[in-house]
C-alpha cells in the first residue's frame, strides 16, 4: 500500500476574544490541536477517537486544508496542504472529500438528488457527457435505485440521505474520504448498513478513510488503525486490534472501559475517569491527563511525556504505560 497522507507536528489554533469588547477580553489563541503526527496509506482506515472537544474535527479540517490557523506539515500525495496556493486548493477538494455528520441538513432541500449529485461536477467545471448516466452510476454505487434521482432530501430516510451524502462525496473520485460521525442520528439497524457500505467502497475504490467518532463500536467495525485524542493531542495510535487488546495509555483504557461492549481486561475491572476535561485555555503542566489519571505519580505533574514507540509499532505518550494486565509496567 502506498503512503497517501503524512502529518507531522500539526498544530491548529483558534482565536477567541478581541473585537469591540477587546478592552475587557483581549484576543487569545487556543491550541485546539497540538503536535499531531500520523500516517495513512491508500486502502487504510484510521479512526480518530475522542470525547467531544478533544480536537478531532479540528484535526480533520486542518488535514483537508480547511484549518483556521494551522502549522506543521500535512503531506497529501507528497504536497504540503498547508503551503498550497489558493489556486491549487480547488484540486485538493477533488482529492479529499467530506461526509458530513448531519446527512439531511447537509443536503440543500431546494434541490433534487440528481441536482445534488451533479453539483460537485458543476463547481469544478467537469460536467460529465451523459449526466443522467453518471447519476445512475453514483446511485448504484451506494446501493440506491435510479428512481431516487427525482426525490428531494425531505423525501429520503436517514439511511438514504446518508447514502446520497456518500455518493456526493465520491463524485469526483477522491483518494481520501473524511467521514465525521458517519452514523450519527441513524437507527441502529441502519448504522451497520452504512458502515458496511463505507467498508465496501474503501475496498472497491482503494480509498483511504479517516473516520471521526466517539463511538468505539464504529472503530471496531471499520478501522484497521485508530488514534485516541485528548486535549488536541494524540495520546495513543496504532493498530485497532492491538489497542483494543491491551491499551497502553490510561486514557485509552478508560475510554474502552466506559464502553459496555468492549471487554477491556484491566487490573481490577474497569478504569473510571475522575474529574472534568481541563480547559484548553489552561492546559495542565506535565502530562495533561494527570489530574484524571488513576496511575499518576509525582513526575506526571511536571514532566510532559514524550512520544514512545512500543515493539508492536504503536506510539503513545505516558511515563508509566499499562501492561497486558492493565497495570503500569514501570
Ligand atoms: Fe497517567 Fe502519568 Fe501516564 Fe499521564 S504520564 S497518563 S498521568 S501515568
Explain what you see.
Helix 6 (188-205) links the parallel strand 7 (176-180) and strand 8 (208-213). This protein has a single domain, classed as P-loop containing nucleotide triphosphate hydrolases (Rossmann fold). The protein is built from 9 helices and 12 strands. The longest helix is centred in the middle third of the chain and has 18 residues, at 188-205. The strands form 2 sheets. Strands 6-7-8-3-9-10-12-11 form an 8-stranded mixed sheet, with helices on both faces. The chain is globular. With 330 residues, it is of the alpha/beta class. Helix 3 (113-123) runs parallel beside helix 5 (158-170) and helix 5 (158-170) packs parallel to helix 6 (188-205). Mean pLDDT is 88; it is low at 263-268. It comes from Thalassorhabdomicrobium marinisediminis. GO terms for molecular function: ATP binding; ATP hydrolysis activity.
Tell me the number of structural domains: 1
The mean pLDDT is 88
Termini separation: 36 Å
Question: What is the H/E order?
Answer: EEEHEEHEHHHEHEHEEHHEE
Instruction: Indicate the CATH class.
Output: Alpha Beta
Portion in beta strands: 15-25%
Rounded to an integer in angstroms, the radius of gyration calculated over CA atoms is: 21 Å
CATH superfamily: P-loop containing nucleotide triphosphate hydrolases
> Remind me, CATH topology?
Rossmann fold
Helix content estimate:
25-40%
Q: What ranges have pLDDT less than 50 throughout 5 or more consecutive residues? A: 263-268
Per CATH, the architecture is: 3-Layer(aba) Sandwich
What structural class should be given to the helix and strand makeup? alpha/beta
Give the distinct bound molecules: iron/sulfur cluster
Number of strands: 12
**What order do the strands of the largest sheet run in, or round the barrel if closed?**
6-7-8-3-9-10-12-11
Rough outline:
globular
